[in-house]
# Entry
Amino acid sequence: PGRSRMQVDLLAGTTHRPAVLARPVPTILVFDSGLGGLTVLARVGEVCRGADIVYAADDAGFPYGRLEEGALVARVLAVMERLVAHPHPELVVIACNTASTLVLPALRARFAIPFVGTVPAIKPAAAATRSGLISVLATPGTVARDYTRGLVSTYAGGCNVTLVGATGLAALAEAALKGERVEDDAIAAEIAPCFVERGGRRTDVVTLSCTHYPLLLEPMRRVAPWPVEWIDPAPAIARRVGQLLGADAAADRAGGHEAVAVFTSGAGITGPLRIALAGRGLAEVLIEPMPLVS
Ligand code: DGL
# Structure
C-alpha cells in the first residue's frame, strides 16, 4: 500500500504494465554519481511527459571526479549491470560528464539500449564567445580526458580555452541541496580560475561541464568577478532524449509521469534532501546497496 507501480516493479523485478494504458510507457534511467543529474532530470521530465523516469545516484561511488579511469569504467559498468536489469530502461541518460567523457563506448558495447551522454558544451561555447576566451568548468577527471581535449581542438581551435578542474564544487552543490550552509567564499575560490583577462579581453563564456554545477548557478552568478554567459547543456540533452524516444515519451498522459530515485548508499540522505527530492518529483527513494570496493 502506498507504493507507486514503479517501486513495486523495482522490488519485484517484474516489468508488468497495467493493460489500461493505450500507449507503451517507456522508462528512462537518468544516472549520475550523485545529485547533479537532477539538473538533467528536470529538463528530461519536461520533454518526456509520457515516460516513467528512474533517477539513479551512485552515491557510494561519489565523487567520480577523483577515480582513476580504469576504476571508473569498471564501477559504472557494474552499477549499470544492475540498473539495466531492473528497472529495465528503454534509454539511459548518463547525466555525468566525468563518466560520459570516458565510459560511453564501453556502455554501448556492453548493452543494447541507447545511451545519451553529457559532455562539455565546447562547441556552443565557441559559437557564443565574443572575446574568444572561454572556460570549461568541470571535475578534475573531465578536464584530464583525451575526449575533452579532442573537443577543444575540434571545435574551439580559434579560442583561448581554460580548462578548470574544480576539486570541491560538486561536493558543495551536494551540501547546498542537503540544506547545509555553503559559504560564498568557498564557491568563489572554486570558480576563480575560470575568469581570465588577457590582452584587454576577458572570459565571457563558462560551460557548466559537471551536472552538479547548475545547482549553484545563483550563487556563482553572485560571486563571479564579472558577468559571463553560463552554458548548461541540459535542455539540449533533453531534446536529444525526446528525439530518440519519439511520440510515446512526449505524449501527455493522465497523472503525469512517475519518478523514483535509487541510491547505491543512501548514507547522506537527510531530511532536507528528501524534501528537495520530493520537490523534484522524486517522492519514492529506494536504496540498492552497492559499496565501492577500491
Ligand atoms: N556530476 C558529475 C559530472 O557531471 C560529477 C561529479 C563527481 O562525481 O565528481 O561530472
The longest helix spans residues 69-85. Residues 32-34, 36, 62-65, 96-98, 139, 142, 170, 210-212 surround D-glutamic acid (CB under 6 Å). The mean pLDDT is 91. Residues 34 and 57 are 5 Å apart (CA to CA).
